[in-house]
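Target protein
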Amino acid sequence: MQTTQQTFKIQDLEKKDNMLEIVSDKYCRTILEVTKFKPKSATEITSETKIPISTVYRRIQTLHDNKLLATSGEINEEGKKFFLYKSKINGMKCHFNEGQVEVELILNN
């Protein structure tokens, strides 16, 4: 059985530039990759990837601001609130042709 991938084509030039900048950042790519299948906390991301926690939080903010990362919150048994992060995308396709850039997001189901 073959499944079809949902895609979203970005039209706005500024958003295209933002997406290309994000995908060029190795920490953003790593965070998107490790949260693709299962939501994870910033601490889990840090321990799994060895990215410093302050960098993880900065990149999470960037990814969230650009709508590439979903955030959900929970309260643990001690009453402390914590957040989980999950990638909204499986990948990105970029094409440069005749001076024009096309950016298409492959959405995460």
About this structure: Residues 34 and 48 are 8 Å apart (CA to CA). The two ends are 16 Å apart (CA to CA).
